[in-house]
Amino acid sequence: MLLGPAFVASIAYVDPGNVAANLTAGAQYGYLLVWVLVLANLMAMLIQYQSAKLGLVTGRTLPEHVGARARPWTRRAYWLQAELVAAATDIAEVIGGALALNLLFGLPLVLGGLIVGVVSLVLLIVQSSRRQRSFEFVIIGMLAVIAFGFLTGTFVSGVDWPEAVDGLVPRFEGTPTVLLAASMLGATVMPHAIYLHSALARDRHHAAFAATAEKTDFTRRAAANPAAATANPAADAAVNPAPDPASIGTELDVAPSRVRRLLRATRFDVIVALLLAGAVNIAMLLLAASSLRGVEGTDTIPGAYDAIAAALGPAVATIFAIGLLASGLASTSVGAYAGSVIMKGLLRVRIPVVARRAVTLIPALVVLGAGIDPTWALVLSQVLLSIGIPFALIPLIRLTGNRMLMGEFADRLPVRLVAWAVAALIVALNVVLIALTLTGS
What we know:
By secondary structure, the protein is mainly alpha-helical. It has one domain: Amino acid/polyamine transporter I (Up-down Bundle), CATH 1.20.1740.10. It has 19 helices and no strands. Its main location: membrane. It is found in: Membrane. The chain crosses the membrane at residues 31-49, 78-99, 105-125, 137-157, 177-196, 268-289, 309-342, 354-372, 378-397, 417-438.
């Protein structure tokens, strides 16, 4: 089965930050901004496919490509901003999980954050022990819980479907809706998901066909010396040793037919995964628009939970909180995984997963223990994520459009134009978001 990597990456699109933005949009402006989520989802499909394609065609992750092309000091500076983005992601996701445990069981936020960290560590141990398929299955299961948790309320909330369809027409109602749209779009395309997807696709598929390529004439090296290939893998490895990790993508050529098949499967994987994530996001907005509009206190997740309980009953509110908990647990695991991919690609350093999880959990626990408003911390984390988007998106588009690197799989001109238009729009909206947030406008 070739599906799975995109479902892991799609967790970034249904994290607690998205929950906060979507509920606020629906509660304050009804169905007005449905079109923003549809547009954001279409953009995300293009970007995530490009990231996966880079990993499949070249055998290297996006951080590895950037690291190989940068001077040492530039590489370290790039790593620092990427690591700060990953840390901001982790803070948002741990806070979301802690809020869910507080809503469900009344646990203190710090204790809830610690529990979220421990559970995410268990998931990362599964992944780090070379059981990627098992990790994917666990994350897909959590995605199903997230979908159930957020879609259930939509079916019982009495959505005004004609108004929802009318929300597909792009428009604004004043400056606040522009700010909110920028927040929704900026929080949807996550930098860590862009870095990670290239690794997810490469690690799932490239190892298998790279081993095949070493024993056939699919590599330039074997093509130059066909007699070197043998039926004995050990002897073949001695004659044609495995390429240095830094040279993967330049030494290794895979049969084009194999790459095309993987890219078709990846395209389907991305479409299905992000359609599900998009449906969850839209369901959150529809739920808020139909049941929470005009209700006081819905600008926070606990306030939205109380409003859902009052409007639709405690059962629906509990299911909502379970979805939020699954969102926090899954997204913090994926975020920590992305951080390890970033560090390995840019610094060429790999630290034990237990140590990394312990270090990255500390900032979230400090925020929770300091008594900072959790919803405000979520909003601030989205601003930090917005700053990191251009650093991931622009190199990705340049690399996938590079014919010397990608060969026949390089982006064609129409795709490059669309990709650059998407990048320009996302960057512009995030500049607006940052400016309005910092000025308090």
